[in-house]
Specification:
- The strands form three sheets. Strands 1-11-10-7 form a four-stranded antiparallel sheet, with no helix packed on it. It has a four-stranded antiparallel sheet with strand order 2-5-3-4. A three-stranded mixed sheet has the order 6-8-9, with no helix packed on it.
- By secondary structure, it is of the alpha+beta class.
């Protein structure tokens, strides 16, 4: 069993480092093709505003269109760019084995996906509140502070390893070692 550093906050740290995401979609089968670019801009502004309200500082937008040949029931998603119809034919051929540039291509849905990252000031404020956890227990007393364990340390259970974000219990019949990078490796010995 491998126990990473800060096991009690591992999921929270992952969520905190993941980008913020938002998207807006609108059905556009009744929208004139000449109006799609303006609609894409409005959807993009709404996504940007949402992400900035959530704390994103750098926002990247990706407009997409779900398109199909007139009369088809399935769509192909392509980036919404000036030549999106050309891209549609290419992707349709790759997916379905044929393309017909003479057929009418219709937009079904317009979508703008956005991704952003929180600014460094906001992250730094949360991380600066950390305190170092220490315990008076030693490995001989059956408990120790994880911060006192160095690379190469090996112990047999039963032992409790305490840290700020969690407690690791090593039962009798198991051993623990620190192979590196703050990871604990537990193995059954009996």
């Amino acid at each position: 069993v491998y126990v990473p550093p800060a096991p009690g906050t591992m999921a929270a740290l992952g969520a905190r480092s993941a980008p913020l995401r938002a998207d807006r979609t609108q059905v556009v089968t009744a929208v004139l093709p000449s109006k799609l670019a303006g609609l894409s801009l409005r959807l993009g502004q709404a996504v940007r505003k949402r992400l900035q309200a959530d704390g994103a500082r750098r926002v990247r937008l990706r407009p997409e269109v779900d398109a199909r040949y007139a009369g088809q029931a399935t769509e192909v998603t392509v980036p919404f760019e000036a030549d999106w119809r050309h891209d549609f034919h290419r992707r349709h051929a790759a997916r379905y084995g044929f393309a017909d540039p003479t057929r009418t291509v219709e937009a079904v849905r317009l979508r703008v996906r956005g991704e952003g990252h929180e600014g460094p000031a906001r992250r730094g404020a949360a991380l600066s509140k950390r305190t170092r956890y220490r315990t008076r227990a030693t490995p001989r007393s059956g408990a120790c502070a994880r911060s006192d364990l160095r690379v190469g340390t090996r112990m047999r259970g039963p032992v409790r390893i305490d840290e700020e974000t969690g407690t690791t219990w090593v039962p009798a019949g198991w051993s623990v070692e620190v192979p590196g990078a703050g990871v604990l490796r537990l193995r059954r010995t009996s």
